[in-house]
Design a protein that fits this description.
single chain, 330 residues, alpha/beta, Rossmann fold, 2 domains, four-stranded parallel beta sheet, two-stranded parallel sheet, 8 strands, 38% helix
């Protein structure tokens, strides 16, 4: 039977809040009976896809937030809470990604439901605390395939705890998934290295790509901060226009779950200074592509991002990605 400590808070490890205190007082969650399938609810698709890959037919996965949904702003509905209560296990990202759902997680966990914050199960040294983030860790861990592979291992351990009979299946599927993520990571490393060094600057709508930057040695500049709740000021936009013009950066990028208004302001600002900047494409940041598409998988999401970034910034990458599957159905 797991202890209360297995239910992790939505707040970052280095900044305990009332939520952390509330969860620390929770009763021990009841271990689910081994059965097939295990009903799993995930808040975001990046987690849901990993659970499906590992769990296979031994899990039935439901994802709360679909394509184009911004988890920073998402508020749990009464039906969402009901879905969490009906699930055998709940996985959420944590590190305040789903900050407006904190009360819902506490309410569900108090019933004894197993509720796990995936990123908060990772060692702290894996996490990034950006400058000016006021002690908050960056929640966008999935942008580093190596770190997300480690998160997949932690998800597998929780599935095994709730379905011990499925352990051989879970471990076999995990090994397959890790090998596929490693191949994706190797492709990303090779492709990004082809971008001219002066142009290895990724300008996006908000700071969702810090882990991507750390892994692949590319500079990332976001208009907004870690959360899309933050406002982009005129000064910040002007600073980024200066960077675009001075470094002759050819492209900026919109995000599928964030308004393109601020990014288009950069394009217009650079044009007014005599430098042509194009929108290099739409990146998947806080949400994946449509269900049933290649981009609606974690690997497809990252493949799309890498390929789009590399081609727009002057590097070399195959038009349809490293598996020749971009734009296809699953």
């Amino acid at each position: 039977m797991p202890h209360a400590e297995s239910v992790r808070p939505a707040s970052p490890p280095r900044r305990r809040t009332l939520l952390a205190g509330a969860l620390a007082l929770l009763p021990a969650a009841a271990l689910a009976q081994s059965r097939t399938p295990l009903n799993v609810l995930a808040t975001i698709a990046m987690i849901g896809d990993v659970v499906r890959e590992i769990g296979g037919e031994r899990t039935r996965v439901e994802v709360l937030m679909g394509p184009g949904v911004d988890p920073h702003l998402y508020k749990a509905t009464r039906e969402d809470v009901a879905k969490m209560l009906r699930a055998d296990v709940v996985f959420y990202n944590g590190l305040v990604l789903e900050g407006k759902m904190s009360d819902a997680f506490v309410r569900v966990a108090r019933t004894g439901k197993p509720v796990y914050a995936v990123t908060e199960l990772l060692p702290e040294e894996e996490l990034i605390e950006p400058e000016g983030a006021d002690g908050l860790y960056d929640p966008h861990v999935w942008m580093d395939p190596r770190a997300w592979s480690a998160a997949a291992g932690l998800i597998a351990e929780k599935l095994i705890a709730h379905d011990p009979a499925g352990e051989p299946v879970f471990r076999r599927n995990l090994a397959t998934l890790k090998a596929r993520i490693a191949a994706l990571d190797a492709y990303a490393e090779r492709a990004i290295a082809t971008i001219p060094e002066r142009q290895r600057v990724l300008v996006t709508a908000h700071d969702a790509f810090n882990y991507f930057a750390r892994r692949y040695g590319i500079e990332v500049l976001g208009i907004q901060g870690l959360s899309t709740e933050s406002e982009a000021g005129v000064r910040r936009i002007q600073e980024l226009v200066d960077v675009l013009v001075e470094r002759r950066i050819p492209a900026v990028f919109v995000e599928t779950s964030v308004s393109d208004r601020n990014v288009l302001a950069l394009v217009e600002g650079a044009a007014a200074r005599g430098h042509r900047v194009v929108v290099g494409g739409a990146l998947f940041s806080d949400a994946m592509g449509d269900p049933g598409t290649y981009e609606g998988t974690y690997i497809g999401m990252i493949d799309h991002n890498v390929t789009t970034i590399v081609r727009a910034l002057g590097g070399t990458a195959p038009e349809r990605g490293f598996q020749n599957r971009l734009g296809t159905r699953r």
